[in-house]
Amino acid sequence: MPVSRPPLFIGGEIYRGSTYGAKHPLAIPRISTVIDLSRAMGWLPDAVYRDTHVASEAEIARFHSADYIAALRRAEAEQRVDVETGARYNLGKMENPIFAEMYRRPATSVGSTLQAARLLLAGEADVVYAPAGGTHHARAGRASGFCYFNAPVLGILDLLDQGVERVLYVDLDAHHGDGVEEAFADDDRVLTISVHEDGRWPYTGKADDRAGGMARNLPMPPGFNDSEMACVMREAILPLGRAFAPQILMIQTGADALAEDPLSRLELSNRALWDAVADLLPLAPKTLVVGGGGYNPWSVGRCWAGIWAVLNGVDPVTAPTAEAEAVLRRLTWQRAAGRNPPEHWFTTLADDRRPGPVRDEVRRVIDTIIS
User: What is the DSSP letter of 142?
Assistant: First the structure.
């Protein structure tokens, strides 16, 4: 029998000190927290950890325009943009601010996703986790939604360029995966499925919107609970995925759909996302898992470390080690909820489940996309 290859984790140290600015939702540490928590739990031995590379301009130009790449590099070097450049490329506002690593950090995120894709194709692993690679809003010539480069699009394009014929992209972020959907709307090699909050920015991804035909959207009402997520997975996403029969699956695991995140009104526990990832894995022989949104440092760190555990067949519903608890207690958050955080943010990894009724509006969305 073949020896099972352990999942690989793609990380980088650029995220440890990098911030979008003190008042930005991405002022918080995320990738470094996931790395530290996973190591503290004994889940991330050195043998499966890979440092990523900064994607080259040529690699980024597979999707992004040369003028936009040049503008972003120049903005990082000069730490400013003029009014015309800012308007043209959506740079320099609160959404997509000027900050010290505004080119290198997203280029590293792209590098992590490309590296993950190539490790899968080289047969070095069947599952690769690149939590920095979930930047799903960026367009070819424009930043959008905290995303300067679109790492999922570039990862999928790399897979297609290497001969992969069917890629399934499932987006679990609270915000619609608009940039990925748009990039592959009429490419029958890529099916994009997005479950997200209805009426939330970017205000796209309606249930009857199939873009060019290769998109399915599940906009969920505020208060979306664990029972509803399980129903959506069981009755819509998994049947669609099985019918598509992908060679490679990419899962975008934005943690902003969790109940304690400040940028959505959804009410999931991290266990709901862990269950979703576990349910999705059998859909394809190879899987690339990326991160995404998530703006509460404790909820995103605990959730993404738990996803890494799930990918390794480890039950994350366990008490943190003393070292892991210390990682959680060192975190800070400038929002009001971070000034007096509840004790369970330090002493547990798993949220209490958040079950509830499966509402009629959820069932209507399911009926719409499977019809």
Answer: B
First vs last Cα of the chain: how many Å apart? 41
Query: In whole angstroms, what is the distance from residue 78 CA to residue 68 CA?
Result: 15
24 is catalytic: no
Give just the sign of the alpha carbon dihedral 169, 144, 12, 315: negative
Q: Which tokens go with 270?
A: 């991290």
Rounded mean pLDDT, 196-206: 98
Identify which of 95, 115, 113, 111 has the alpha carbon closest to the alpha carbon of residue 103. 111
Is residue 336 predicted with pLDDT exceeding 70?
A: yes
> In the numeric block, which tokens belong to residue 311?
């990918």
Q: Please report the pLDDT score of residue 371 as a whole number.
A: 87
CA 139 to chain centre: 16
C-alpha distances out from residue 253 to 88, 108, 280, 292, Å: 30, 18, 12, 6
Q: Which helix (H) or strand (E) holds 287?
A: strand 286-290
The pLDDT score that the predictor gives to residue 50 is 98
Q: Given 136, 137, 175, 176, which residue is catalytic?
A: 137
Q: Which tokens in the block code for residue 89?
A: 């490329």
> Which CA distances in Å does 214 have to 71, 168, 192, 218, 369?
32, 10, 6, 14, 12
Q: Strand, coil or helix: what is 98?
A: coil
Closest CA to 191 of 167, 171, 173: 167
Interatomic CA distance for residues 364 and 348, integer angstroms:
35
